[in-house]
Amino acid sequence: GAGVSQSPSNKVTEKGKDVELRCDPISGHTALYWYRQSLGQGLEFLIYFQGNSAPDKSGLPSDRFSAERTGGSVSTLTIQRTQQEDSAVYLCASRFLAGGRNEQFFGPGTRLTVL
Amino acid sequence: GIQVEQSPPDLILQEGANSTLRCNFSDSVNNLQWFHQNPWGQLINLFYIPSGTKQNGRLSATTVATERYSLLYISSSQTTDSGVYFCAVSSGTYKYIFGTGTRLKVLA
Q1: Distance (Å) from the alpha carbon of B33 to chain A's nearest alpha carbon
Q2: Which helix (H) or strand (E) holds A58?
């Protein structure tokens, strides 16, 4: 596609339920990031995928959070047993890397509300 | 790790005014991006500018890597310029560090 897409755009769930968020990166971009943005705050790094390398999961806040990337393309971020503090916008970015240029492009985000 | 500070944190302008936003970083970087987050939350790429000066319409940016800062200039501001402006840097790795942003409101 022309840009990074994410689904759903909004998700409201009850505390304790599991949620799955999807990111479809720009075709040909081998790197993919997940970030979290709480209301009025900056971006918090969650996880990074690059090709077939082991992902950098250092930003995941707890073991309730996991992510996978299938076939080097689509990625899903799963949050188990959601808590109210998980409420935030979850942003995905894919990266263009060529000729030393390292540039991220963001999707529209998924707004998660945990009641 | 690298620290990124943006100033001012908040800015209110009358339509037509010019402004300068600043991004300071604590260590040398080899990648720097400026983004505009619009009121709907979409992050829009403005500039990829690890060094030098670029211009795109009413916006321009300058990064002085040796002095560890970057500036974003907005001229003849419009209400559609409202939102949050972020700079993000990385140094030899894939991990970008984001500043806390400058929240801009342009009044008609």
Answers
A1: 7
A2: none
